[in-house]
């Protein structure tokens, strides 16, 4: 969608001071699936403190937005998005002690979150080894593995609330579900306050983390673009097994394929479009429903229009 030049100028003159503002940006460059159309407005805040002002301005301009971190859990329509995408590109501030907890900016990558925690003498972060993306995306998704998930170590979150104010709110297990954190509506995460166990064994934990990552690389199709596991595990089942038992290993639509290495991954095998991935997701869901009467729910966030 092309924006009128007046709106472009307003955005550049207001938000240009606290962020990088671009227009008509291909989102395939910002998703790990490497698919998706263009964002009509693309905003990269200079720092987390810029976010309240950015959100207030977009609200005044009646412009909707999507916030993204590493784009590692997103399937965005090939049509693109005719509103603003706010991308957390700048690496967040270092992990710091606040109120007896450790504060991590939503802008931090999970990789740096782990290495900073170890550097400061803390453990409790192995569960997120090898999970891509930002701390903000990790909190929002309650990301994790069989070893645990973000809610296990999270005590409070710092958000920009619906009044564009920065607020710290307590968070507990009741506020989370499997791959989902229930944060106040229309708020965005600036960071998290974590309780991590102090450890004298951080070198050993570092080695364990290296092993976990190596193991993940051997089991996951890391040589192709993907968004990790596409489906949530239904209660009492493994999604990969249901897909596998439908004989869908290697099943292909357009450039998208059910991975032969891990059947809960859909990979961008060759120039896939988001529609290829979307159609494949629907095919898999139908097969699993027909064979097992189980409704698969996507873990990947599907955004924009799909026909
Ligand atoms: C190879 C691979 C392996 C993976 N393995 C795992 C795994 O083992 N476990 C797992 O849980 N996930 C896994 N994932 C999925 C993904 O990495 C996680 O969900 C990750 O936490 C998403 O972080 P992100 O920064 O990329 O978020 P994005 O994909 O950018 O966004 C995901 C959602 O979070 C929202 N969001 C992002 N930042 C904020 C913010 N600051 N405030 C409010 N909302 C926000 C977005 O709007 C969107 O709805 C994998 C992905 C890949 C590609």
Write structural notes for this entry.
The protein is α+β, with helices and mostly antiparallel strands and 307 residues long. The protein has 3 domains: 8-87, Uridine Diphospho-n-acetylenolpyruvylglucosamine Reductase, domain 2 (2-Layer Sandwich); 96-218, Uridine Diphospho-n-acetylenolpyruvylglucosamine Reductase, domain 3 (2-Layer Sandwich); 221-303, UDP-N-acetylenolpyruvoylglucosamine reductase, C-terminal domain (Uridine Diphospho-n-acetylenolpyruvylglucosamine Reductase, domain 1). The protein contains 7 helices and 18 strands. The protein has a 5-stranded antiparallel beta sheet with strand order 6-7-14-10-11, covered by helices on one side. Strand 16 and strand 17 form a beta hairpin. The longest helix has 19 residues, at 274-292. The model has no long low-confidence stretch (mean pLDDT 95). Residues 32, 66-74, 88, 106, 131-134, 136-138, 140-141, 143-145, 179, 188-189, 220, 226-228, 301 line the site of flavin-adenine dinucleotide (FAD).
Q: Can you summarize the main beta sheet?
A: 5 strands, antiparallel
How many helical elements? Answer: 7
Distance between the termini: 18 Å
- Low-confidence sequence ranges: none
Instruction: Report the CATH architecture of the largest domain.
Output: 2-Layer Sandwich
Written as H for each helix and E for each strand, in order along the chain, the element string is: HEEHEEEEEHHEEEEEEEHHEEEHE
What binds here, in terms of ligands, is:
flavin-adenine dinucleotide
Major sheet: order of its strands? 6-7-14-10-11
- The figure for the number of domains is 3
Number of strands: 18
